[in-house]
TrEMBL record:
Hydrolase listed as a keyword: yes
Catalytic activity annotation: [protein-PII]-uridylyl-L-tyrosine + H2O = [protein-PII]-L-tyrosine + UMP + H(+); [protein-PII]-L-tyrosine + UTP = [protein-PII]-uridylyl-L-tyrosine + diphosphate
Coiled-coil ranges (or none): none
Cofactors, names only: Mg(2+)
Free-text note on domains in this protein's UniProt record: Has four distinct domains: an N-terminal nucleotidyltransferase (NT) domain responsible for UTase activity, a central HD domain that encodes UR activity, and two C-terminal ACT domains that seem to have a role in glutamine sensing.
Activity regulation statement: Uridylyltransferase (UTase) activity is inhibited by glutamine, while glutamine activates uridylyl-removing (UR) activity.
Bias-annotated ranges (Gly residues): 20-30, 862-871
Region called Disordered, residue ranges: 1-33, 847-877
Protein name: Bifunctional uridylyltransferase/uridylyl-removing enzyme
Sample GO molecular function, one term: [protein-PII] uridylyltransferase activity
Keywords associated with the record: Hydrolase, Magnesium, Multifunctional enzyme, Nucleotidyltransferase, Repeat, Transferase
EC number assigned by the record: 2.7.7.59, 3.1.4.-
Amino acid sequence: MPFVNSDRGPASDDSSGAGPRPGMGPGGGPLAATDLARTRRQLTEATGAGRLDAAGLRQVLVDLHEFWLTSKAAELGIKPHSGLAIVAVGGLGRGEMLPHSDLDLILLHDDLAVERLSEVADGLWYPLWDANIPLDHSVRTVPQALQVAAEDTTAALGLLEARHIVGDEDLSSLLIGGVRQQWRTEIRHRFPEVVEHAQDRWRRAGDIAHRAEPDLKNGRGGLRDVQLLGALAIAQLTDGMGGLRPDSPNAGPQMAYHRLLDIRTELHRIAGRPREQVRAQDADEMGASLRIGDRFDLARVISDSARTISYSIDVGLRTAGNALPRRGLSKLRRSPIRRPLDEGVVEHNGEIVLARNAIPSKDPGLILRVASASARTGLPISASTLSRLADYAPELREPWPAEALSDLLVLLGSGHHMIDPIEALDRTGLWGRLLPEWGAVRDLPPRDAVHTWTVDRHLVETAAYASSMTTRVSRPDLLVLGALIHDLGKGRGADHSVVGAELAVQVGNRFGLWPQDVDVLSDLVRHHLLLPTIATRRDLDDPATATEVAETLGYDRVLLELLAALAEADSRATGPGVWGEWKASLINDLVRRTMRLIDGETPEEPEPLSPQTRALAESGEYAVSLTPGEGPHTFTVVMVAPDAPGLLSKMAGVVALNGLRSHSATVQGIETADGQRRAVNTFVVVPTFGSPPEAGLLRQQLIAAVEGKIDVIERLDARESSSPIPTIGSVNATPGIGAGAAAGSTDPAVDGAGHPKNAVPALFAIAPPRVLWAPAPSDDEVLMELRTDDRLGLLSRVSKVIEQQGADVRWAKVTTLGPTVVDNFCLRLADDTPQARTALADAVIAACPPPQPRSDDDKGDGAAGATGSGRSGVPIS
């Protein structure tokens, strides 16, 4: 490297003799501007042994330009105490001069005479113009520069990177110190504009991690975002480039920044001009020059780096928003309340944090509870919480406990709200602990242009779309799990369906699935391309086509309906236009034809009561027992009461009112020894937080509910409407930034500093509710199956509706699979006509949580025709 410091001449040991040395003219004198331009070109176009790497080239260019400016300043009388100074901003200001970067300079003066300024400015600018060196220049006093910074956010961000080059250093210090002090003083008022400025840039340039030709400088996750983090650090709102864990992807934002900077340097060198977008035709050459690999390897590095920076800017903007001093009446507010969301998980100041009594080192499932709480509420996970989990949370033992799998299903059932929590876990190394197989597909670029996302993001997108289809299938848990891992076999040098099926067995066993469910999950991954391939390439009128599909799937109805839903979710997650009416009609037709070849399922029947439960039922009119379940936070509640209309609704309401989330319920009745009929209902529950209530309290409330002293539905409505948890929509008013960064938002649920206000509960439905009918074992009974997203007191509400419609619940079996419930009721209808069934189904659906509005791309029944349209009156088989 010829120069070490800008105030020194060329290194004395540079004696190559191959033309003029950088910093010297042809005759050994000071370097002319034309020689500067020629030397820039020689350094950029050098090959072989004379070629510098990207970082070395940037440093040499910085030294070269500083030497020229120092020499020219001496000629023009720009010296200490001269009232003149040259200040660099942009690339030279940051010490990151790229081959074709503009030279951004400010000629700073202490209110000198116009004649003197003109003489100096002409002597400085004209040589550079004549040499065709790109130049962005200005001549200002310190007050003038500060005024520009106060009025223009772009100019202010640039001046924050200003650096003294030569001349009156006191003058430069006045400007640099003044700009920074002004920035700190005014940041409270300017922060909304800063956020809007970044968002406008992201809208224009897009997301670097998922664009075919990304803008490395201006795109989301690019170089400008790291510079913005530096500006927020100067304002003392964040710690700037706080590093991620060493074992997290890409190690940290600083490394990601330098990787993108190296790629941008090589892009300038290859393009021969200041290009910011990586073009596909240049990618192979750039990858080889940087010793990264081919264009796919380069794309993976770019995606990895950009996603690390995106996560950092999310955290930085959110932290900055929360650090802003409050204004007006908000100053009088007390400190933010810590609101419990789950065991060991609370909301504080618009973020998900750990409860004070949470001990990550002793609670392996805490990671998934934090992530599922974030997805359910739309609140971002605090960076300190992620760091603490990464440092102390142990790995889950295999097989996972049922509670951990349930939390994972809640996360995967939250639609596109799962993306931010999963991204946060992935960027901090936590997602890889849960799914070690994820590393092979992380940031893996697609091999064809039809795919919008990297492979890992495509998997998450597929799971998000699949979560809106969970009520189409009888096993919503296997659907979202299959969607998450269906392409996990890519990037391993073999048929990804075959490799993925083997990995599915490994993953399913780790999750603690039953062996038969592991087989279904593996088959789902193995055959996830079967329906689209056959439907679009074979004659559907040929009976052999449907027979081949049925034989391939082993005449498994459940697997067929799962594949139908996964085919649509996979297509929608691939890219725009991949799923359409033509493809949907072909797959639906194939599924309908195949369904005709598969036998129906055996009707559900109640399980017999255990001896312990029967003894409890014989012990008295009212009885309640509460015993620990299989997991550390799981309990079994058994309630006994004289059988009567409306009893199930009251029992389920009492359970919900006490903060117990029902994972499953079994509703039965028996004849006691004294001839009385008693209802015996068993609930498997998990407390929302803390410990469950005493069984005696539940018994007292049950008696009060049966005797009409309390209205459980009324209390559930009041509890739901008064919940302080912010809604999804209100928190994420600024997509990708989080609550704290939404400062200045017009969303009425967010205050001026970006702090979320109290709102309705974040209980939302992703998939539309569906009611299906099937014959029961007894001729005078019928089976009704309800598939819907969960809601506070759902079983109590639905039971009351059934009872109000005049139906008698003979027995029921309720299962919660993540956020989706599958409730089977054996009913005796007073009027078993199609009209009565439709009225009952409509009333039941009205008690379920309505689905979120979806975009046009998400609408349509798609493959739902395989199992019915979901309207009331649809048979199960």
